[in-house]
Design a protein that fits this description.
This protein has helices at 12-15, 43-54, 69-76, 89-99, 101-110, 120-123, 167-175; strands at residues 3-7, 29-32, 59-62, 81-84, 114-118, 157-159, 181-183, 188-193, 196-201. With 208 residues, the protein is of the alpha/beta class.
Length: 208
Amino acid sequence: MQKILLLSSGRFLINNTKVFEKPFKDMKMAYVITASKGVENLDYIERERKFFKDQNFNYQEVDLDGKSSDELRDLLKNFEIVYVTGGNTFYLLKSIRQSGFDKIIRELISQGLVYMGASAGSYVMCPSIEMATWEHQNKYNHCGVDDLTGLNSVPFLITAHFKPEYKELIQEKIKNTKYPVKILTDEQAILIQDDKVELIGSGSEIIL
């Protein structure tokens, strides 16, 4: 069964300790921090590390850069869940392509590995990362990435970190994209299990 969990923010994990058969802290987790290398403010990474340590998560940090597809396959097959955290979506997508992670993660998900992404880690699973170019999100270097094609593991776009002041901007962008758009606050996530798509977390679905 394909299992993908797409978060707006890692903060979701604080109030949602169990989504699958086992609590997150009891799942052997690969914590992919590559997207953080494209940003300056790493406070969110330090918060996640502290939370994982305080809650005794069974995790190992992984950087995609410098690894081959064979190395990633051998490494990631030993985990139950891969958590790709947020940061610079463009840097992350570039590293995914260079390392072959895009091919490996599809293969491993089909074999039962759980994929969890937050923000940039969610965006790259969509058909396109165009939402990372929308004005309220477009704050990082594009790292020479002109092809915005994502991994296309889900048939919709996600826009994360929703705040009411973004409403009009997002409404306009939704009109100009060919894909459905799902909007998440930092307390929400989308769970995909095979063909079933479910909003989980706090608050109602945001429809604009």
